[in-house]
UniProtKB/TrEMBL annotation:
Protein name: Integrase/recombinase xerD like protein
Keywords from the named record: DNA integration, DNA recombination, DNA-binding
Species of provenance: Acetobacter pasteurianus
Keyword S-adenosyl-L-methionine: no
Keyword DNA-binding (UniProt): yes
SUPFAM superfamilies in alphabetical order: DNA breaking-rejoining enzymes (SSF56349), lambda integrase-like, N-terminal domain (SSF47823)
InterPro entries: CB, DNA_brk_join_enz, Integrase-like_cat_sf, Integrase_catalytic, Integrase_recombinase_N, Integrase_SAM-like_N, Phage_Integrase-like_Recomb
Listed Pfam families: Phage_int_SAM_1, Phage_integrase
Gene Ontology molecular function: any one: DNA binding
Coiled coil feature spans: none
GO biological process, one term: DNA recombination
Lineage, highest ranks first: Bacteria, Pseudomonadati, Pseudomonadota, Alphaproteobacteria, Acetobacterales
Ranges of residues in domain Core-binding (CB): 171-251
Domain Tyr recombinase, residue spans: 278-501
Amino acid sequence: MLDSLHLTGSWSVLLPSVIDQVDRLTRQLLTQSDVTTDILRSILSTARFSPPLPVFVAGSMLPDGSFLPDTELPECAEHASNARMLLEATSSSLPNGYHLEVALEIDRQRLAFVASFVALDQGQTASDLPRKDKIRSIATPPPIGQNPANVARWFTALVEAEVPKHDGQLETLQAAVGAFVQLGKAANTRRAYRSAIRGWCVWAARHDLPALPARSEDVATYLADLALRERKPATIELHRAALRYLHHISHLPIPTTHALVSETLAGIHRSPRKTPPRQVKGLTWELICEVVDRIPMTSLVDARDRAILLLGYGGALRRSELAAIQLEHVSLDEDCMRITLPHSKGDKKHQGTTIVIPRGITRHCPVRAWETWLRQSKLTPRNKNKDTKPENVNETTAAFPRIWLPAAAKNNEPPPAPKIGMKSLSDWSVAKIIKQRCQSAGIEGDFSGHSLRRGAITTGAQDGLDLIRLKRFSRHRDYRVLEAYIEEDQALSKHPGKTRF
């Protein structure tokens, strides 16, 4: 049995992540309307997870001053009892006055079993402890002076906070302030900060240094360590910004403004050891056609990936924008398709952006690729009235959901149909699809999730589009940023002295 659950966000938001990884019986129990938080722990205590979940021993500070760092076990666990067996075998000798608690930690990025050493009250034994039938949310006050593992856990919960419903209570209004502060940062920024803070906390725990508040000399040392590990200057700047933000929301003095930190960063930027900037190759029209033509179109995955590639190119979409498209965001007519992006990088006020992709007549038309994907997958927007659900359709809101391939057929039976998930692909999955399809087509180069966008802008420049139309197409706010997307070969073909030399 699980001793408790750790939720880094509201259960309604975290539920899809759990649904995708539990067994069928647990899935049915979780989707029942009468499931309450009081029985949620007991349901997940018997759930089987696929793939198995990682198992961690959370770091903690013991009374003698010794620190137990976060430790990940080499084996994963399919269910809670399996995780407890692994933990008990690893921690055969517990510190005096402590017992082991096993929790299921759920956030948007991962699910994991986490064990903690919890102090017993005087005169109490582990067998006397009451079982916990409630969900423990991460504490909201900043964990000042606590071990780095708690700092990382608190920051993760904070950046995932949702705006609460109004009930007139002061505590609710104060929680709303924190949620609105987090919404001031883009989702990708919050995710990058969360990863950076986790890295900082791991480093601080390894060297037995305080994570919150951080000392200026420790921050400078950490940034120097990143530089020696050949991290890019932009990545190091991101870690500095994340640490500044961590102390800002904790109402603590900012250690990153110290001259020692600033001079260390200046030296990193001037250092000859720094890694040269990555030159991502754009998928121009000729290359994207070559990649698409190599897709065999023998499965649902092929149809989905083909639509991702062509739509990403046709709309100069970022990988995060591709992953976030929902079925209700797309409309079709005889001339074009329109994709409404409720959130995008340049739309800081979330007013919405509409992408128009014209309908073509070739086999490389993005609109026709989208229609082929819908026809083969039978995707339809989720019907709110469950009693009127059509047959042989896959209800979802995700335009590009995950697909699980079926197991091999047995006894000459027809193979089962692939399972289409209800959750969208992550932006990392979109980038992986682009890289894999380029590799399968035999195209050499450093491709990434940005290659579609870069290639579309580059092709527009090659076709003679002026900067105003390119800027409208790419949705950039600054011409200087737009110019950086045009491939270097334009410097040769458009060189002013080419016809004079």
